[in-house]
Specification:
The chain has 204 residues and is α/β, with parallel strands linked by helices. The protein is built from 5 helices and 10 strands; from the N terminus they run E-E-H-E-E-H-E-H-E-H-E-H-E-E-E.
Length: 204
């Protein structure tokens, strides 16, 4: 088996979506004065690799309601290096199977461009998103900072309103397209709108 860690490291000053809280890390206790090293961190719930809950866009359901069964299991990774949005007729050439419980999208637009996060990324059209629902989709993940262009919420609302888990900010640059087992575990932050997650792919 081969393991791929597809989690973006959380570091002080790392890029965040415009307007989101910055990442701050400082020493709370030090070896020199306290005998132990303990750090204090301050992050937004949508920092780096993270899982959205429906409450993120005003929907019904917090992180507690996102089932682990949706976040773990068979996943298909596809590579879409184009700037335009993915149409429904693009799904078959991409290699998206007719039954696809978890789809991960590698756009490549975040690779090597870690200084800023913006809306300049590829994503799905509403028609492509609706088609994925007919294929049994339970989770949609992307290396992009959003599943919508600009400040739109259409894809967010479609997926989260149907109980489809959304994972954003994945680190997919080193992962070839194909079939994997996904394990994505967000921090267990009770009653909140989302959380950073540790995500890995396993190729058998």
């Amino acid at each position: 088996m081969r393991f791929y860690d597809i989690t973006r490291p959380i570091r002080a000053g790392m890029p965040v979506w415009p307007g989101d809280p910055p990442v701050e890390i400082e020493t709370a206790l030090s070896l020199e004065t306290d005998g132990v090293w303990v750090s204090r961190i301050s992050v937004g719930t949508h920092t780096g690799t993270h899982v959205d809950a429906p409450a993120h866009i005003g929907g019904d359901g917090t992180l507690d309601d996102v089932p682990l069964a949706a976040l773990c299991g068979a996943a298909q990774l596809v590579h879409w290096p184009h700037r335009r949005r993915i149409e429904a007729h693009d799904l078959a050439p991409l290699g998206v199977p007719t039954q696809c419980p978890r789809l991960l999208l590698r756009t490549g637009q975040a690779e090597g461009a870690n200084e800023t996060l913006s809306s300049d990324h590829a994503t799905l059209t509403p028609e492509a998103a609706a088609e994925l629902l007919t294929r049994g989709l339970r989770l949609f993940g992307t290396d992009a900072p959003s599943v919508d262009p600009d400040d739109a919420e259409e894809i967010h609302r479609l997926f989260l309103g149907r109980g489809i888990a959304i994972v954003k900010g994945l680190a997919l640059a080193e992962v070839p397209p194909g079939s994997y087992q996904l394990y994505c575990l967000p921090l267990r932050l009770a009653g909140l709108d989302g959380a950073p997650a540790r995500a890995i792919l396993v190729a058998e």
